[in-house]
Amino acid sequence: ALPRDLEGLRVVVSAGGTREPLDPVRYLGNRSSGKQGYAIARVAAQRGAEVTLVAGHTAELPPPAGVDLRHVSTAAQLRDAMQERAQDADVVVMAAAVADFRPSARAEFKIKKSDDVPDPVVTLTRNPDILAELVQKRRAGQAIVGFAAETGDERGSVLDHGRAKLARKGCDLLVVNSVGEGGAFEAEDNAGWLLAADGAERPIPRGPKAQLAATLWDAVAEFMRR
Ligand code: PMT
């Protein structure tokens, strides 16, 4: 049986990907299946927390037992839902893959191809950083957990990028996972590091997404006791 160490905590978790509409039938999206965020919500409920799960678009997943599930589509809707629910949450976890950019304009009618006009060019506008805003508005004592979906490149490793993101976003804990070929998106398993604002770092060995969720909640429980 799992420990009931999260009893009395109100938790809000985001999962899945956002869709940013271009016209009535098209959108910009990403490959998030929601599996990681759902596992985090499910494990929290199993450990006694009162859980709200704000889900963007996901693969077909069973709703986690005992969890208040709300569906959203765009980054703007996810932002509204998270801001509302974070107001009385003890812990906020941002596992959703939020679009960094949305099409600057949403066409009212389906964009047609035409030999008379040039092909369209899509212009993008930056979306608000929901996690950074939640950190700015955090209640006293509230723990905020972010994710970093990274690929290693010439400027640094996945872990380097994760450390920089933790500092930039100002959250208390950050899960860094690798999203290159065969990485975290859509997979059943995940791996990475759990970084804390006080500098503590623990590796998360590859395993089912529920296992990463358990490591995350162990760290949150420890953080709340401090
Ligand atoms: O859904 P799965 O298929 O199971 O895959 C899981 C996952 C790879 C999506 C998940 O583990 C993960 O990494 N989620 C975060 C994805 C992401 O958007 O990472 P990022 O490095 O781009 O963003 C950093 C953090 O800021 C994240 O906590 C993100 O939720 C948040 N963010 C990002 C952009 C934005 N405009 N607002 C945000 O709040």
UniProtKB/TrEMBL annotation:
Keywords for the protein's UniProt record, in alphabetical order: Decarboxylase, Flavoprotein, FMN, Ligase, Lyase, Magnesium, Metal-binding, Multifunctional enzyme
Domain DNA/pantothenate metabolism flavoprotein C-terminal: 6-222
Pathway: Cofactor biosynthesis; coenzyme A biosynthesis; CoA from (R)-pantothenate: step 2/5; Cofactor biosynthesis; coenzyme A biosynthesis; CoA from (R)-pantothenate: step 3/5
Binding residues for CTP: D100, K110, P128, D129, I130, L131, F147, K165, K169
Region of interest (Phosphopantothenate--cysteine ligase), ranges: 11-226
Enzyme Commission number: 4.1.1.36, 6.3.2.5
Catalytic activity: N-[(R)-4-phosphopantothenoyl]-L-cysteine + H(+) = (R)-4'-phosphopantetheine + CO2; (R)-4'-phosphopantothenate + L-cysteine + CTP = N-[(R)-4-phosphopantothenoyl]-L-cysteine + CMP + diphosphate + H(+)
Textual note on the cofactor: Binds 1 FMN per subunit.
Top-level taxon: Bacteria
Gene Ontology CC: one annotated term: phosphopantothenoylcysteine decarboxylase complex
GO molecular function per UniProt: FMN binding; metal ion binding; phosphopantothenate--cysteine ligase activity; phosphopantothenoylcysteine decarboxylase activity
Cofactor: Mg(2+); FMN
GO BP terms in the entry: coenzyme A biosynthetic process; pantothenate catabolic process
Sequence similarity: In the N-terminal section; belongs to the HFCD (homo-oligomeric flavin containing Cys decarboxylase) superfamily.
Function: Catalyzes two sequential steps in the biosynthesis of coenzyme A. In the first step cysteine is conjugated to 4'-phosphopantothenate to form 4-phosphopantothenoylcysteine. In the second step the latter compound is decarboxylated to form 4'-phosphopantotheine.
Protein name: Coenzyme A biosynthesis bifunctional protein CoaBC
Organism: Amycolatopsis acidicola
Upper classification of the organism: Bacteria, Bacillati, Actinomycetota, Actinomycetes, Pseudonocardiales
Gene: coaBC
Shown stretch of the complete protein: 182 to 407 of 407
